[in-house]
Specification:
The chain is of the alpha/beta class. The chain has helices at 2-24, 34-39, 57-67, 78-81, 124-137, 144-152, 161-170, 182-187, 189-199, 206-215, 218-223, 230-235, 254-257, 260-272, and strands at 47-51, 100-103, 116-121, 176-181. It is globular and about 50 Å long. The N and C termini lie far apart (57 Å). Bound molecules: 3'-phosphate-adenosine-5'-phosphate sulfate.
Length: 279
């Protein structure tokens, strides 16, 4: 009986999440709600964490949470500590000594403030694969090819990767922005961390840096997976969805998934938006 009740609530929650996802999914093309976002009161020492979906946002959320707190994992969920502005929250979590605001918004839609902006980017091919598995976690039953076709037809609600990156890269002089590549994080995380710390004007001792490096690793984050995936957090016990939000976290895997034709289309998107950074 108890199990049936929990199952009912779990299903209701999943439905609620799906509806919310459809209405509020961060980053999709211009919406009325952006008007509200512009009216929030931002502080000069806020840190915005911006990305196109599936580019390493959660990874950076964890890193910035570690940078601006004691790093203890007695938090319920990372999204409650570093919320998405397009989901209507910017309040500062009690754990953080500085407010960090996540967003998937295009440059044109982001509030232009004196705060610092960290923009995380990842190669399109890998983003596409990650997006496919993300959709599967949310119940998508189509094939990889169908999914990718939807993206290429510009039907993905999260927007267009090239347009997102181009908007931010072209306007880098207009905001105090620091760019981080997912691929560079994978190659030399400590170096990238030092650059982030210097950009945020934060000095930390070696021991704290080591803690951040360890806790931002895939291994550590997987061990605390329930803090990073909201739906799974609720549904885990019911075995509804595999614990798969932190999936593989690899660079170049997209090449193993995309057909030659798909690679060509993806390459065209990179060229169309003159993204030298990924050519
Ligand atoms: S979302 O839904 O937009 O917030 O997704 P996002 O967090 O931007 O991206 C998810 C991908 O990031 C990978 N990830 C990591 N990779 C390496 N190290 C760490 N610590 C890490 N944390 C998350 C995650 O596995 C997703 O990539 P894929 O390729 O699907 O594995």
């Amino acid at each position: 009986m108890l199990k049936a009740i929990r199952l009912f609530f779990a299903k209701a929650y999943l439905l609620f999440c799906a509806v919310l996802h459809a209405i509020l999914e961060p980053g999709f093309e211009k919406q009325e709600r952006i008007m509200n976002i512009l009216s929030y009161k931002y502080r000069d020492n806020d840190v915005f964490l911006v990305s196109f979906p599936k580019s390493g946002t959660t990874w950076m959320q964890m890193t910035l949470y570690q940078v601006f707190s004691d790093g203890e994992m007695d938090i319920d969920h990372i999204r409650n500590v570093i919320p998405y502005v397009e989901e209507g929250e910017i309040g500062q979590h009690k754990k953080l000594n500085r407010r960090v605001i996540a967003s998937h918004l295009y440059y044109e839609d982001i509030p232009k403030t004196k705060a610092k902006y960290i923009y995380v980017m990842r190669d399109l091919d890998d983003v596409l694969v990650s997006l496919y598995y993300h959709s599967k976690n949310f119940g998508y039953e189509g094939t990889f090819d169908q999914h990718i076709e939807k993206y290429f037809k510009k039907k993905y609600k999260g927007g267009v990767w090239g347009k997102h990156l181009a908007g931010w890269l072209e306007n880098k002089k207009n905001l105090d922005v620091h760019f981080v590549k997912y691929e560079d994080l994978k190659v030399d995380f400590p170096k990238q961390l030092d650059e982030i710390l210097s950009f945020c004007e934060v000095e930390l001792d070696e021991e704290t840096k080591q803690r951040i490096i360890e806790r931002s690793s895939m291994t550590y984050m997987k061990a605390h997976q329930e803090k990073f995936d909201q739906v799974q957090y609720i549904l885990l016990e019911e075995n509804y969805i595999q614990n798969n939000f932190l999936r593989k976290g690899e660079v170049g895997d997209g090449k193993n998934y995309l057909s030659d034709e798909q690679k060509t289309i993806a390459q065209k998107e990179k060229e169309n938006y003159t993204l030298a950074v990924y050519q």
